Amino acid sequence: MVHAATARAHTNIALIKYWGKKDAALRLPFTSSISMTLEKFYADTSFTLLPSTQESEFILDGEQVSASAAARVMTYVATLQQRHGVSGTFRIESHNHVPISAGLASSSSAFCALAAAFAAAYELDVDRTELSRMARLGSGSATRSVFGGFAKWERGHDDETSVTRPLDEHPSLDLSLTAVEVDTSPKAVPSTVGMRRTAETSPYYPVWVENTEKACGLMERAIAAQDFTRIGELAQQSALDMHALTMTARPGFTYFQPETLAAISTVEALNDAGVECYFTIDAGPNIKVLSRAENVEEIANRFRAHMPAVTLTTTSFGPGVEYLA
Ligand code: PMV
Known about the structure:
- By secondary structure, the chain is of the alpha+beta class.
- 36% of the residues lie in helices and 24% in strands.
- The chain contains eight helices and 14 strands.
- It has helices at residues 71-84, 106-121, 128-136, 191-201, 205-224, 228-247, 258-272, 296-306, and strands at 4-16, 21-23, 28-29, 33-49, 57-60, 63-64, 90-96, 150-153, 164-168, 176-181, 277-280, 287-291, 311-315, 322-323.
- The strands form three sheets. Strands 1, 4, 5, 6, 7, 8, 9 and 14 form an eight-stranded mixed β-sheet that branches.
- α7 (258-272) crosses α8.
- The chain is globular and about 65 Å long.
- (3R)-3-hydroxy-3-methyl-5-(phosphonooxy)pentanoic acid (PMV) binds at residues 14, 17-18, 33, 105, 107-108, 139-141, 191-192, 282-283.
């Protein structure tokens, strides 16, 4: 038995959003979703089996995580151990290269890297489809980080069928993403809580489900055609739909802050000036701008001029999960 393994998984940003589970325990979503895996944001996670005399521990960015804060991760590993018929105490050591809880889907890279390290440490014979199912049990968005480029999480109808498949792992499309961080403090409404409230109480939820399935079909076609404009338009609309939906929950809520609207206005101003770009927004106030590489500099300059306090990071397509050791 290999007793330790280290995996690197990159975060992904949903271009067609996932927002709501029909089965919370299995994390089965109401809709399919489509993502772009990002090069610059990732997690490196080691999973090491320990002698039975030692207790399990979780070390995040060099610091021991308290038992209560580590509960979700520990429960997740216990679930995987039970499913795969393995046992034992372990150490998880993770280094995150993503701002945590700031709407940059840090959980996607974290749980994907953990699932992969777990599988290798126990020498499980799992392919990437199976790995996408294992990652899904930790965090829905993590299932898509198994693959690079563009990926689609098929909603499926049960644990077997709700898995991710690659759409184009090595896109030649010229597509850059500029993350505009207006606020990196932890979000007030965690995505799990926000999506549950929305799915359970919004009278518009059935419309969201129907519309998102259609949007996935359109996005798949746009990706196959390498149509930058269509991809941008569909991604922006999905983000707006999701954020409009949270306001229709009972009680309604929003992840937007005043700076989010200022950033949206900046994207509009750029388009008015002939710089074609689009935005997407996850469960937080930060926006990500989709553009062609040649426009990245101008976009950054415009944001620096209009919103000097923001942090900007530009990236493009990242690879799927990989092993470092
Ligand atoms: O699976 P979670 O808890 O990371 O939720 C992801 C929710 C969104 O990022 C807003 C949308 C998505 O599809 O990633």
